[in-house]
């Protein structure tokens, strides 16, 4: 009976994500804040910000000055001026015969924010910035701060309007932290290297193998000012940390499967990606033994149905895509209240990066 339930959940995941975002995913009326079902499916797989839709940090700073000030002190920001000068980065570029670290797509994808100029060319305008993690803002910026009327503020906005605003923002492409899985995906997209040549030929690392979502997001890069109306950079409460802890594991498994799917040779890249995938699944299985969650169980069933082997791109990518949908639904439907058995295992504040 359990097997039947899990199979059903996996099937439902392929249908239910658009419903979680709402009717806007079934229209192409961008002016109303909608997007196509295909566009929303694209959102579920983190990717570099589209330069044609990048507005830049200046579009964010009016309302998020405190967040920008935190960002400026992080490696995400300083990489813009530093990365191309580092000897190890220069060596990787030489190994791959790249002319410019700031212009080559495989470097830009994770280390810079690119914007399309009025002439149609592309220019790196920042390091890892707002739109690197929350997605290019052109389609969703106005939606996400529309509180209902000129007189309405975020504090006076009705709960119903807030829910609809967040739904429409996500449907328009925003990786909104209202669903922490979307944020976790942004992190793991770059902290898991999914480029075989970059590692095996270039000499780049195969990813941040010690990356853990809670520990790495709640320390020096934390910028949670919205909850206190700008007064404090608040830590997340325990229930949200629980959801983040599991969402991070699901995103790790998804990203690791995606990386393994690119492996064609038994070399550093493929071995590392497969090992990371196996570890991610082992951690998630340990979680599944402590909590009763159908989305975690279904994700493990998906993993158990594929082989971590070379040249298995189609099956591994399909598994990753299904886990992405299950991860989104886990975060959308879980408030953390049932995840207390995980509390002893969530990284404590003294370990946050």
From TrEMBL:
Keywords: Signal
Keyword Oxidoreductase: no
Domain Cytochrome c-552/4, first and last residues per copy: 59-134
Stored InterPro entries: Cyt_c-552/4, Multihaem_cyt_sf
Signal sequence annotation: 1-18
UniProt name for this protein: Perchlorate reductase subunit gamma
């Amino acid at each position: 009976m359990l097997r039947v339930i899990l199979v059903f959940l996996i099937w439902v995941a392929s249908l239910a994500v658009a419903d979680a975002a709402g009717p806007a995913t079934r229209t192409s009326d961008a002016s109303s804040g909608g997007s196509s079902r295909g566009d929303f499916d694209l959102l579920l797989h983190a990717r570099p910000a589209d330069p044609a839709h990048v507005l830049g940090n200046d579009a964010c700073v009016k309302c998020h000055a405190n967040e920008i000030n935190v960002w400026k002190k992080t490696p995400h920001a300083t990489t813009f001026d530093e990365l191309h000068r580092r000897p190890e980065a220069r060596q990787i570029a030489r190994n791959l015969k790249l002319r410019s670290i700031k212009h080559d797509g495989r470097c830009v994808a994770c280390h810079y924010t690119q914007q399309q100029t009025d002439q149609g060319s592309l220019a790196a305008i920042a390091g890892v910035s707002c739109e690197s993690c929350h997605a290019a803002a052109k389609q969703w910026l106005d939606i996400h701060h529309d509180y209902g009327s000129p007189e309405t503020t975020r504090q006076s906005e009705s709960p119903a309007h807030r829910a609809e605003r967040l739904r429409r923002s996500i449907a328009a492409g925003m990786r909104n932290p209202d669903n922490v899985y979307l944020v976790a995906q942004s992190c793991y997209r770059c902290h898991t290297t999914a480029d075989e040549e970059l590692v095996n030929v270039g000499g780049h690392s195969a990813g941040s193998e010690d990356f853990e979502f809670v520990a790495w997001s709640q320390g020096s890069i934390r910028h949670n000012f919205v909850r206190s109306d700008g007064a404090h950079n608040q830590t997340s409460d325990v229930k949200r940390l629980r959801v983040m802890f599991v969402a991070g594991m699901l995103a790790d498994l998804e990203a690791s499967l995606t990386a393994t799917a690119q492996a064609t040779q038994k070399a550093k890249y493929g071995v590392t990606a497969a090992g990371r995938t196996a570890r991610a699944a082992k951690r998630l299985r340990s979680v599944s033994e402590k909590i009763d969650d159908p989305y975690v169980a279904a994700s493990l069933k998906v993993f158990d149905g594929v082989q971590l082997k070379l040249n298995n791109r189609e099956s591994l990518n399909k598994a990753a895509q299904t886990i992405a949908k299950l991860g989104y639904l886990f975060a959308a439907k879980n408030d953390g209240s049932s995840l207390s058995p995980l509390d002893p295992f969530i990284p404590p504040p003294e370990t946050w990066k």
